[in-house]
Amino acid sequence: MKLFGFWRSLATLRVRIAMNLKGIERDEVMVDLMAGAQHAAEFRAINPQGVVPALIDGDGPPLFQSLAIIEYLEERFPQPPLLPADPRGRARVRGLAQVVACDAHPLIVPRVREYLERDLDADESQRLAWIRHWLGEGLRTIEAHLEDDADSGAYCHGDTATVADICLVSLAVGYRFFEGRLEEFPNAAAVVERCMAQDAFERAHPLRQPGAPHTR
User: Fold this and answer.
1) Other beta carbons less than 10 A from residue 86's beta carbon
2) CATH code, 169
């Protein structure tokens, strides 16, 4: 398998964690988003949207979008499972994951930040406020679900890591990158701490990837 991503990409982080949890070997190709490599014709031929991650597995067309890739991996490599066995549990986990991947995170990705700067003349402090607001809203929503739902456990859903925890960790990492205080969300912070104690999560951290400015 070949995974196209970027060290700082939160969406790539999600796929990397899933692959680590399942013990899936891959070659990683870094697409430098800061240098605009995602706009190159070579990468657009892999993913016309010009975003990461993208996954090539065998002779089929490249796969794209982090949650779709994770669901593909879940079907191909069902152990350990990243979704609960029961339909309601799967729906809850997918819902928590989508709060992150389909709601909060898309509002702060590089092309949105570039639009805020280039087209709306938002300065750095305004862009930072925008980012913290939307990541914080996502964390606030997750926190409410963790606090009020009996299905919450040591992790977002029960006592084993699922796709919901993968997405929560990506949100928390992004929030900290932009100087947010995760302590404002104690239940979410506790889940993130448990996740990061696992090698599969820790090894996937952006600052441990090739091209990162320093290692943790």
Assistant:
1) 9
2) 1.20.1050.10
What is the token pair recorded at 27? 């070659």
Query: What strand order describes the sheet that includes 27-30?
Result: 27-30, 2-5, 54-56, 63-64
196 alpha-carbon distance from chain centroid:
14
Q: Which domain holds residue 32?
A: 2-80
Q: How many residues does the chain have?
A: 216
Rounded Cα distance between 142 and 137, Å, is: 9
Classify 189 in phi/psi space as left (phi over 0), alpha (psi -120 to 50) or beta.
alpha
Residues 6 or more apart in contact with residue 45 via CB below 8 angstroms: none
Average pLDDT over residues 193-212: 96
Asked if 149 contacts 197 with a C-beta cutoff of 8 angstroms, the reply is no
Do 71 and 114 have their domain in common?
no
Does some domain include residue 8? yes
pLDDT at residue 51 is higher than 90:
yes
| Residue 215: inside a domain | no
Our separate counts of H helices and E strands in the chain read 9, 4
**What is d(CA 176, CA 123) in angstroms, rounded to the nearest whole number?**
20
Q: What is the pLDDT of residues 52-85, one digit of tens each?
A: 999 999 988 999 999 999 999 999 999 999 999 9
Judged against a pLDDT cut of 80, whether residue 215 lies above it is answered with no
Answer with the one of 30, 47, 80 that is the final residue of a domain: 80
